[in-house]
Design goal:
- Helix content is 40%, strand content 24%.
- With 294 residues, the chain is an alpha/beta fold.
- The strands form 3 sheets. An 8-stranded mixed beta sheet has the order 5-8-2-1-11-13-14-12, sandwiched between helices. Strands 6-7-10-9 form a 4-stranded mixed β-barrel.
- Strand 6 and strand 7 form a beta hairpin.
- Helix 4 packs across helix 5.
- It starts with 10 loop residues before the first helix and ends with a strand.
């Protein structure tokens, strides 16, 4: 989206931007969009403000947005402050009982409320909750390659009624990904936010699932931003993984898009949260941004 305050834009340019956006406004009104929020867009204060402005605008025009957030860097920082060493097993954080308390405190007690506060300051109606509230997320303990990860879980059930109720009242639900154990298990579990967001999108029958991250999308050449692949068909994902085009940390993000798409979400995207107002560019312009899995 163009900067409408830019003096270099004449009236014709302004009108062109609005005319281009109008069909998208019409399409998205009344639809549900689930946004996974993390990466640099969450750490950079200016980018954070841009994201919140985008979400408030979407909500104001009648688009139902659910914001799901993680908080790995902030958890690491708090663990350092209390003198507790972060431990990783096969690339995943080992979460003992004390660490789980810190995870819950940081995600639900601090970050969640910080995000809600910014949305309110920007004029939005926001409510913060965790996966524990109203039994939104249920999880079971996982092991990876036979290793015990402590209180790390995978989502087994999503009960979206609380989100549906809030959306119907015009609120923006902000969800931190701490989950309750299955029936009979009173433990709390640390959940991967990307996966949780994808499963929430499926449960809500969302029209769109967007992951805001700190890369441009899927690149044919990781050293060349101009090699962005804008559209990837589900059938081509395996071959792109085999030839190394999709590799490293991009694989789980693509897998979350596939999870949402296979669950019935029509549009799934990985977009660059480092670009100011990237969410608006994706939602309301012909050019789009990032990579779409279709």
């Amino acid at each position: 989206m163009a900067d409408m305050t830019d003096p270099r834009l004449d009236n014709q340019a302004w009108s062109n931007v609005l005319v281009q956006a109008l069909p998208y406004f019409r399409h998205w009104v009344g639809k549900i969009v689930v946004v996974k929020y993390g990466g640099n867009a969450m750490l950079n204060e200016e980018l954070k403000k841009d994201v919140m402005e985008d979400i408030v605008l979407l909500n104001t025009v009648g688009i139902h947005v659910v914001l799901v957030h993680g908080g790995g860097p902030e958890i690491n920082h708090m663990l350092e402050r209390v003198g507790k060493e972060s431990k990783f097993v096969n690339g995943l954080r080992y979460t003992d009982g004390e660490t789980m308390e810190i995870v819950q405190m940081v995600l639900t007690g601090k970050l969640n409320k910080d995000i809600v506060g910014i949305l309110l300051q920007e004029g939005g109606k926001a409510v913060g909750l965790s996966g524990v509230d109203s039994g939104l997320l249920r999880a079971k303990k996982i092991q990876k390659d036979g290793a015990d990860l402590g209180f790390v879980g995978e989502v087994t059930e999503v009960h979206p009624e609380i989100l549906e109720s809030l959306l119907a009242q015009g609120f923006i639900p902000v969800v931190s990904t701490v989950a309750l154990g299955e029936q009979g298990d009173m433990a709390r579990y640390n959940i991967n936010a990307d996966t949780a967001a994808a499963k929430i999108a499926v449960a809500l029958k969302a029209e769109k699932f967007v992951q805001l991250t700190n890369v441009a999308g899927v690149l044919r050449d990781v050293n060349d931003p101009a090699s962005l692949i804008q559209r990837i068909h589900l059938a081509d994902v395996d071959s792109l993984i085999k030839d190394g085009t999709i590799a490293g940390g991009m694989i789980p993000k693509i897998e979350c898009c596939m999870l949402a798409r296979n669950g019935g979400v029509p549009r799934t995207h990985i977009i660059d949260g480092r670009v100011p107002h990237s969410l608006l560019i994706e939602m309301f312009s012909d050019r789009g941004i990032g990579t779409m899995i279709y």
